[in-house]
Amino acid sequence: MMWLVPFLACIGLICAEEPFNYSVYNERVIGGHDAKPNTWRWQVSMQYDSYNDNSFYHICGGSIIDAFHIMTAAHCIMGTDPSQYRVVVGEYNLYEDDGSEQFKRVERIVVHPGWNGDLGKGNDIALLKLADPVYDNGYVAIAELPYPGETLPHGYNCTITGWGLMDYEGSVPAILQEAPLDVVEHSVCSQGDWWGSIALETMVCAGGDGVISGCQGDSGGPLSCYTGGAWRVHGVVSYGPSGMCNQYKKPTVFTRVSSFLDWMYSVMDGHEEDNSGK
User: Fold this and answer.
1) What backbone torsions phi and psi does residue 83 show, to the nearest 5 degrees?
2) How far is the C-alpha of 204 from the C-alpha of 151, rounded, in Å?
3) Which residue range forms the structural domain that includes residue 227?
4) Is 107 contained in some domain?
5) Selected catalytic residue, list 219, 224, 238, 258
6) Residue limits of the Peptidase S1 domain (predicted)?
7) 53 tagged catalytic
8) What distance in Å separates the CA atoms of residue 156 and residue 91, rounded to the nearest whole number?
9) Catalytic site residue 124?
10) Residue 121 domain-assigned?
11) What is the pLDDT along the chain (278 residues), one digit of tens a residue?
């Protein structure tokens, strides 16, 4: 599991890393399966160009929250230069041209002012402002969001999606994966044999059955839950256990979107200063 120290470095699913030199196998995402095309239309692939040579690679997921803004995790921000990032919307197979993609440059990065690099302190959320808006080509959609302060009951079924690792051996998927996860309420997730005190009320825990989980590369992506008559993004993938991602009583932990709506709307309205890299 955490072995009490993994937040000191980029371990487990909790960080974006250099691209893996692994082959793509036929195994499924941890406990999940290939998503149907054109289903999770708010899902994006956040990509990074380490050497400024236009060689972008997937590092994290994200969600479209309006035509100009993408929501992701603060820990996915690897550098402060927006030109080193791009966002791909309408993506399905990372290694093929699906004909549905839109490739968008990033103009501005805004990291939550409370983010200090310590995942256990929370505030692991950031917004990317795009240089050009996402347009409706039939393969994208703006994510519905929860109500302010909304929480979900214990056992509520949601879905995690992403291109994260599918097993501990490092198998990476070409096709977007999906997996069902049940919410673990805060009173349970914060118990000592679960995540303890680093599970905050501004987070959502989901999973922990030892079978299904998010993993590295899913960071920043959505936890989508059907509430109020619509699929809504209730969480942003934040952290999980080091080593094997699908460990018992160590659910995937998400930033709780409903706790950050005021800040998000302030950024989207242009009232928040650029504090990328914080």
Assistant:
1) -70, -15
2) 8
3) 157-258
4) yes
5) 219
6) 29-269
7) no
8) 28
9) yes
10) yes
11) 222 222 223 433 444 433 322 222 233 347 789 999 999 999 999 999 999 899 999 999 999 999 999 999 999 999 889 999 999 999 999 999 999 999 999 999 999 999 999 999 999 999 999 999 999 999 999 999 999 999 999 999 999 999 998 876 677 889 999 999 999 999 999 999 999 999 999 999 999 999 999 999 999 999 999 999 999 999 999 999 988 899 999 999 999 999 999 999 999 998 765 544 33
16 token code pair = 């974006």
153/205 Cα distance (integer angstroms)? 11
44 and 138 housed in the same domain = yes
CATH number at residue 88: 2.40.10.10
Give the pairing type, strands 222-227 and 230-239.
antiparallel
Q: Active site residue: 69, 124, 171, 259, which one?
A: 124
Would you tell me how many other CB atoms lie within 10 Å of the CB of residue 113?
A: 12
Decide if 132 is catalytic.
Answer: no
Q: Which two tokens stand for residue 267?
A: 């950024």
For the chain, what is the domain count?
2
Do 75 and 131 belong together in one domain? yes
- pTM of the entire predicted model: 0.88
